[in-house]
Amino acid sequence: MTRRRSRTHFLSSLAATSIVLVAGAGVFWIKTDGARAFTSESARRLAITRTPRKPPPALLEASDRRLFTLENFHGRMVVVDFIYTHCPTVCFSLGSSFARLQIALDESRRDDVHLLSVGFDIARDTPDALSTYGQRHKADPKRWTLVRVANVRDLKPLLSAFGIVVIPDEYGGFTHNAALHVVDRQGRLIRIFDADDIDGVREFIGTKRGS
Amino acid sequence: MKTRELQYIVFCVMTILVLFAPPVRDALERSMTTHVLVQLAGLAAGGWLLGMAVREHLRRAMLIVNSNGVNGLLTGLFAMAFWMLPRTLDESLSDPTLEAAKFVTVPLLVGAPLAISWTRLNPVLRSLLKVKFISMLLFLGWLYVTAPDRLCTNYYQSDQILLGNLMIAIAGILAVAWALPWFFVNGTHKGARRTRPHPALHGSPGMG
Questions:
Q1: Where in chain A is the domain with CATH 3.40.30.10?
Q2: What ipTM was estimated for this complex?
Q3: Of A102, A176, B56, B67, whose Cβ has the fewest other Cβ atoms within 10 Å?
Q4: Which runs of consecutive H residues, i.e. helices, occur in chain A?
Q5: Residue A33 — left, alpha, or beta (φ > 0 → left; ψ -120 to 50 → alpha)?
Q6: CB neighbours (10 Å) of residue A13?
Q7: What is the tens place of the pLDDT at every residue in B56-84?
Q8: pTM confidence score
Q9: Could you write out the DSSP letters of every residue in B72-140?
C-alpha cells in the first residue's frame, strides 16, 4: 500500500516536472526570441531586422536652418545616428564613425547613400552647435546632414520609433544607446549596427546597391 | 494557522506593499543596483516568507506534485532566470503589464516555491545549491563589471559595475557565512557521538 502510494507520488511528481520544464523553457525561449536576444538592445535590433518600421514624420531643422522631413530623402538610403553636440564620449565615436563612413562612401561613389545625424538635446543642439560638430568631423554637406527636430513634441515619437533611450547622466550630459541605423529607400528603418561597425554597414549597403 | 505563520504572512504582505508603493518603487528602479538587490531580492524574500507560512498546510498537495522538492526548485530557478534577463529588467520599466507581473511572479514563483521545497530537498542537493548560488553571483558580478557595453538601456554603466562589484561582495560574504560553522563544529563531541561503537561490538568489560 505505502509502496504503491510512493510510486504514484513519484509518477505524479515526474509529470509535474515535465510541465514545469516545458512551461519554464517555453517562456524563457519566447522572452529571449529563441535565445537570441537577452538584452533590450539586441531585442530592438532583432525586431527591426524582422519587421522594418517606418518612423513617424517629423519636421527637422538642419544646421543650415533649412527645414525638411525624412521623406525628402526618399530614393536614397540614409544612415542615421543620434547624438548630442556637448557629448564628450560616445557621440564623438559616432562622429568619427560617420567621418569614416563618409570617406568610404566617397571612395565607392555611393551617391545614393546619405548620412543623417539627429541631435536630441533640443536646447543645446542649435543649428550653430550642429554646424560646429559637423566641421569638427569634416562633414561634407552634400553627404552628411546634421539636424534637430523642429518641434519638441516630435522628439519622443521619433526616438521611440528608432528605439533610442536617452537618460540624463550625472555630468549634465546624456547616456543613450548609440548605434548606426540604416533607413532604406522607402523610408523604413531596416537594420541597426554597432556604433563602430563601419564594415557591417558598408557590407549591408553594398548588397542594396541600386535596388 | 499558527501565530508564527500569520506573522510570516503579515511580513510578506507588508514587504510587497512597501516595495510596490509608487515612491519606493520609483526610487528603487532609478538604479540598477537597488532594482536588483533591493526590489527583486525583497520580493523574493517576501515570497519566501509566504512559502514558510503555507509549507505545512500544503504538505499533502506537495507530496503529490513536489514529493522530493525538485519541481518547486525548478519553478524557482526558471522564474529567477527570467527576471535576471537584462531585457526583462529594462522592459519592466516601460511595460506596465510586465511591471505588474514582476510583483506577482517574483514572490509566487521564485520565493514561495523555493521555501516550500527547501526542506524537501536532499541535503546534498541543498549544499550544492548554495555553492551554485555563490558561483552564479560571482559569474554575473564578473560579467557586469567587465562587460564593455551597458546591458540595460535604462541604466548607466557605472551602476552596472557597482551592481557587479556588490554581487561579488555578497558572494564572498555568503561563502564565508556558510563555511564558517564548519570551523566551529566541536569535533570531539560530534565525532565521539558518530563513532560510538556498535553495541554488538562491546565486549563485556572486566570479563577479558
A1: 53-206
A2: 0.83
A3: B56
A4: 2-31, 40-50, 90-107, 127-136, 155-162, 198-206
A5: left
A6: 19
A7: 999 888 888 888 899 999 999 999 999 99
A8: 0.85
A9: HHHHHHHHHHHHHSHHHHHHHHH-HHHHHHHHHHIIIIIIHHHHHHHTTS-HHHHHHHHHHHHHHHHHH
Most confident of A5-14, B147-156, B170-179: B170-179
Tell me: the pLDDT tens digits for A153-187? 999 999 999 999 999 887 778 888 889 999 999 88
Q: C-alpha grid cell for residue B133?
A: 548560488
Could B67 and A31 be called an inter-chain contact, meaning their C-beta atoms sit closer than 8 Å?
no
Inter-chain touch B74–A24, beta carbons under 8 Å: yes
> Which residues of A fall below an 8 Å CB-CB distance to B?
6, 9-10, 12-13, 16-17, 20-21, 23-25, 27-28, 31-32, 37-43, 165, 167, 169-170, 175, 177
pLDDT value of residue B199: 52
Question: Among A132-141, B134-143, B198-207, whose mean pLDDT is lowest?
Answer: B198-207
Residue A56: DSSP 8-state: P
B67–A10: do the CB atoms touch at under 8 Å? yes
Residue A204 neighbours by CB under 8 Å, 6+ apart:
A182, A191, A193
Distance, CA of B73 to CA of B62 (rounded, Å): 12
With 90 as the cut, is the pLDDT of residue B148 above it? no
Q: Name the residue among A131, A122, A39, A50 with its Cα closest to residue A82.
A: A122
Angstroms from B119 CA to nearest CA on chain A: 16
Q: Please determine, looking at this structure, whether the domain spanning A53-206 carries the CATH number 3.40.30.10.
A: yes
* B75·A175 Cβ contact <8 A: no
Nearest residue in chain B measured CA to CA from A41: B153
Residues of B in contact with A12 (CB under 8 A): 64-65, 67
CA distance A167 to B152: 12
Contact B87 A39 (CB under 8 A): yes
How far apart are the C-alpha atoms of A73 and A95, rounded to whole Å?
21
Mean pLDDT, range A74-95, rounded to an integer: 83
